[in-house]
């Protein structure tokens, strides 16, 4: 591991060289880029933390300690919120084991000592420390999309920050296809890789949870790899016609799900997907895949805009459970209407939030305020 310690300090030094060469009024640092924070500390340079995570994941270390044990599900645990009494001991145990592992990890100790030997004092620049020493922290959510929390003064919520994408045009072939009926869009992100079993489970879930007139727009990487499975599961031509399965969607998914016929967005639980769907006002089904994505699924259920579609088997996909989640969102029921209504309400709030323009304006304000430390 010694080589990694050397590389870490070299990265810190490289960041310091860049900062000295540019001499910026202020630096914007990704919340996961500890070396960048450390470089700013060493140079006493003001910096802003930019986090892709949900607000709770940024502010969690700054919450009262007891809440991390008994109130908030531990990150990556997938424990429901509010925490049922039957899960409290599990949550406490996971947190204690995590703390013990970090405090006793020899690599953490070696890295800390190596940093100290190279004039980088104090704790590692993660968690609360990177926020406390910053002048501000950006989070791309709104209170209505998050679990209840005490927001530190330095942490600002700006709503979803989305790309300026080319919208769907009425003349587009995809737009005309979407006009054909109620549609579910499924996109599991660029890091997810299906197995044959998951392809089968997904198709069977869609067939079980949708009506004969519903459409499915489904993005699958390496689609040719699953051609045999797709042909076997979609052997009925009438069923096959309802599925539009593609390797790539030319229009940004965030624009596709704005179409009036899109009634649900199935995704892996990534923050971008979560916030895009929230801004579009579309109910979500989350098939969570790793760590904080389990928390996103719990968050979607708590705020009332989606369903944790693979809770019993995550990160796998079960046809029965996923199909039931689809049916719950599409069936004419009080639950489905309540979820759709709440998603629309959240969408209006997200679109009214400051967004990327608010973030840009805040950066300029902080850069010009040289008295702010």
From TrEMBL:
One Pfam family recorded for the sequence: EryCIII-like_C
Alphabetical list of Gene3D superfamilies matching this protein: Glycogen Phosphorylase B (3.40.50.2000)
Keywords carried by this UniProt record: Glycosyltransferase, Transferase
Keyword Metal-binding assigned: no
CDD domains per UniProt: GT1_Gtf-like (cd03784)
Boundaries of every Erythromycin biosynthesis protein CIII-like C-terminal domain copy: 242-344
Protein name: Erythromycin biosynthesis protein CIII-like C-terminal domain-containing protein
Organism: Thelephora terrestris
């Amino acid at each position: 591991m010694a080589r990694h310690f050397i590389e870490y300090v070299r990265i810190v030094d490289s960041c310091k060289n860049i900062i000295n060469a540019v001499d910026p009024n202020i630096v914007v640092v990704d919340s996961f880029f500890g070396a960048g924070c450390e470089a700013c500390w060493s140079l006493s340079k003001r910096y802003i933390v930019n986090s892709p995570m949900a607000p709770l994941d940024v502010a969690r270390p700054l919450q009262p300690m007891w809440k991390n044990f008994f109130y908030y599900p531990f990150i990556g645990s997938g424990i429901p919120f509010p925490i049922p009494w039957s899960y409290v001991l599990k949550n406490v145990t996971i947190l204690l084991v995590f703390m013990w592992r970090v405090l006793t990890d020899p690599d953490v100790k070696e890295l800390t000592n190596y940093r100290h030997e190279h004039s980088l004092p104090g704790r590692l620049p993660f968690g609360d420390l990177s926020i406390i020493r910053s002048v501000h922290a950006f989070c791309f959510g709104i209170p209505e999309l998050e679990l209840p929390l005490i927001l530190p003064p330095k942490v600002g919520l700006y709503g979803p920050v989305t790309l300026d994408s080319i919208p769907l045009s009425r003349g587009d072939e995809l737009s005309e296809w979407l006009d054909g009926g109620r549609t579910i869009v499924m996109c599991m992100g660029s890091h997810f890789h299906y197995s044959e079993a998951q392809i089968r489970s997904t198709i069977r879930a869609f067939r079980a949870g949708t009506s004969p007139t519903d459409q499915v727009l489904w993005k699958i990487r390496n689609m040719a790899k699953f051609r045999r499975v797709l042909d076997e599961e979609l052997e009925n031509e009438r069923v096959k016609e309802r599925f539009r399965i593609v390797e790539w969607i030319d229009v940004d998914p965030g624009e596709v799900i704005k179409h009036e016929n899109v009634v649900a967005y199935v995704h892996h639980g990534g923050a971008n997907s979560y916030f895009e769907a929230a801004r579009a006002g579309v109910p979500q089904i989350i098939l969570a895949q790793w760590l904080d994505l389990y928390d996103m699924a719990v968050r979607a259920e708590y705020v009332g805009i989606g369903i944790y579609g693979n809770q019993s088997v995550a990160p796998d996909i079960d046809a029965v459970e996923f199909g039931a989640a689809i049916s719950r969102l599409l069936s004419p029921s009080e639950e489905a209407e309540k979820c759709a209504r709440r998603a629309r309400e959240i969408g209006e709030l997200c679109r009214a939030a400051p967004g990327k323009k608010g973030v840009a304006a805040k950066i300029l304000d902080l850069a010009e305020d040289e008295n702010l430390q």
